[in-house]
Amino acid sequence: MSIDLSTPPVPISFEVYPPRSDAGVAALHETIRHLAAVDPRFISVTYGAGGSTGGRSLELLTHILRETHVEPLAHLTCVGNTYAGANTLIREFLDAGITSFLALRGDPPAGASEDDAFLGDLGSAAELVQLIDRVQAEREPYTEAPIPGVPGAVRVDRRARVDIAVAAFPNGHPRSRHAFEDIDALLAKQAAGATLAITQLFFHADDYLAFVARSRQAGVTIPILPGIMPITSGARLRRVLELSGEALPADLAIALDVEPTAEGQRDIGIAHAARLAREVVDGGAPGIHLYAFNNHDTVLAVLREAGVLVPATRMPQAVH
Ligand code: FAD
Questions:
Q1: Pathway it acts in (predicted)?
Q2: Is the pTM of this model over 0.80?
C-alpha cells in the first residue's frame, strides 16, 4: 500500500499514540475500528523520543496493518540513537511490513538540552529520511520500468515502496530564530527524499495557508497536510501550548475559559477545529490530518461538522 492524497473526497488521516498500559489496548483497538470505518488514507502512530514506546508503537502499527484496510504510518525518532541503532530499528519496522514513516529527529529527553554532548548520531530528521531511504534501497535495491519510446532504456526507481513524511512548523519551530529557518528545514527534508509533510498544530487557517504559500515560493513541492487538533478543554489547551511552544490563541482560550461545563468546552473545541478544517480545505489543503488523542468520537464529530465526512462506506465490524 502507499499513501494517495489525490482522490476525492477530502483525504483524511489520523494520529494516535500507543497505549500506555495493557488496560488501554482493547479500547484503542475499538477506536481504530471506528477510525478505519471512515476510510482514512493512513493512521499514524507516535513514537516516544529515545525509543520509550518503540515496542508498543510497532504492536499497534502491526494491529492496524493486519486488522484494517488502512495504511499504518510509523513515526520514528532518532534522537539519542546511534547510526547502527537507527538502522536496526528501521529494519525491524520494515520486516513487520511497515512501509510508511514520519521521520523525526525528536526532542532531547527531559533534563537534557540541545547542547548536550550526545543527542544521537543523526542530527536531523532529514538525515533519518536519507537513512530510511538507504535501508529500504539495500533491502529492495531497485525496480526497473521500460521508458516508452526509448528502446532498451529503463527507468530505475529506488523509492517505489516507502513513503516518508516529515514534520513542518507553520508558526516556526520553538528554536527557530527566523521564519526562513523553518522553510529551509522543510526544503532540506524534501531534498533528502521526503514525500509528504504534516504540520504541527496551529490555531488559525492563515497560519497554515501563509506557510504553504511561502514554502511553495521557496521551492517546496511535496504536499503539506494540515495537522488539526481539537482542543476540548482549557487543560488540554495549556498542555499543548507547553509541548508545542505555540502562542496562546486568545479567542479560543477565552471561549473555553467562560464555558463552565465539560460538555460545552468539548463543543467549542469541535466547532473550532471544524471551522479550521473547512477553511484550510477551502484554501487548497490536500487533506486533513487530525490528532485523535486515541478517541474517535471527537475527531469524527469535527469531520461531520466540517462537512468533509461522507457517509461511512465501511461499517465497523463486530468485535470478536
Ligand atoms: P528537525 O526539523 O530535524 O529538527 C531537529 C532539531 O533542530 C530540533 O529539535 C531543533 O533543535 C532544531 N530545529 C529544527 N527546526 C529549526 C528551526 N526552524 N530553527 C532552529 N532550529 C531548528 N516527537 C516525538 O518524540 N515523537 C513523535 O511521534 C512525534 N510526532 C510528531 C508529529 C508531528 C506532525 C510533529 C509536527 C511533531 C512531532 N514530534 C514528535 C515532535 C518533534 O520531534 C519535535 O518538534 C522536534 O523538535 C523537531 O523534530 P523534527 O523531526 O522536525 O526535526
A1: One-carbon metabolism; tetrahydrofolate interconversion
A2: yes
